[in-house]
Specification:
The structure is a single chain. The chain is an all-alpha fold. It has a domain at 112-251. 71% of the residues lie in helices and 2% in strands. It contains 8 helices and 2 strands, in the order ααααααβααβ. It has helices at residues 2-33, 40-54, 64-81, 85-108, 119-140, 152-179, 195-216, 224-245, and strands at 182-183, 248-249. It has a two-stranded antiparallel sheet. It is elongated, with a radius of gyration of 24 Å.
Length: 258
């Protein structure tokens, strides 16, 4: 029965992956045919005026107030003339990334297991990649002003997120594997062994699982294709660890060795 259920899971995951491939391809094609701005001439004329108000003829600047004002005007100009081009692109990339994730889950399995060593770095790599991508894509799409520190701060933040999350995710995901011999229950199990144990373990994983859900929900944003899939992998890791904590210990064989 378990093998039959696993095969059934693999079939519907594969079908969902194929649907997302078609959807992602359509969205990326729409992005390719959508112009950058609703009125390109008016946009670049406005951008020229912002630059002229910021820089004088000698290349000097008017101080931090001028930078702040120019940045506000720049983003207002972006909002005025934006098109759904990059929304289509980001949703298309996310659909493609999720299709790959679903296919991997269909082939490798998604049910609770004690073998998760490779999955932990994958989750963190996707999250950090998404943060890096959000910074570089925004610059490449000219969605941020050239006079702002648009790369250094986001990149430093991405590295910081990776450094902070690494020990936390490792501890939460691997603790039940390293310190128990329990067989996991199903991922969505409510009780497991006892109500008290389930309540304590669920509260322990509630906050990080909530953060993982928030990461999943940014799929439509720049870099969301990696952040959302990384959040999904992290959510699976946390649910998997909870399922192990709620499982029953595997009996140790007492038969003498031959």
């Amino acid at each position: 029965m378990a093998a039959k259920a696993t095969r059934g899971d693999g079939r519907w995951l594969t079908r969902a992956a194929l649907v997302l491939v078609v959807l992602g391809g359509g969205l990326i094609a729409m992005a390719a045919t959508t112009p950058w701005h609703t009125d390109a001439n008016a946009y670049f004329e406005g951008l020229k005026g912002i630059r002229e108000s910021l820089y004088d003829d000698t290349g000097g600047t008017g101080g931090m107030d001028s930078f702040d004002r120019a940045s506000r005007d720049f983003h207002a100009l972006q909002d005025r003339y934006e098109t759904p081009k990059w929304l289509y692109a980001d949703l298309g990339y996310a659909a493609m990334a999720w299709s790959l994730l679903l296919y991997v889950a269909a082939v490798g399995g998604w049910r609770a297991t004690r073998r998760v060593t490779v999955v932990v770095p994958l989750s963190l790599a996707l999250l950090v990649t998404g943060l890096f991508a959000s910074a570089f894509q925004a610059v490449g799409r000219e969605q941020v002003p050239e006079w702002a520190d648009t790369l250094a701060i986001p990149l430093m933040g991405a590295v910081g997120v990776g450094i902070v999350l690494l020990p936390v995710v490792l501890a939460l995901a691997l603790a039940p594997i390293l310190f128990t011999r329990r067989d996991p229950v199903v991922l969505w199990s409510v009780v497991g062994r006892r109500w008290g144990t389930s309540l304590v373990v669920s509260l322990m994983y509630l906050a990080p699982a909530g953060l993982a859900v928030l990461a999943v929900l940014v799929a439509w944003q720049t870099g969301g294709w990696a952040i959302s899939t990384g959040g999904a992998v992290m959510l699976w890791l946390l649910l998997n660890a909870r399922a192990i904590w709620l499982g029953r210990s595997t009996p140790v064989s007492t038969q003498p060795l031959p």
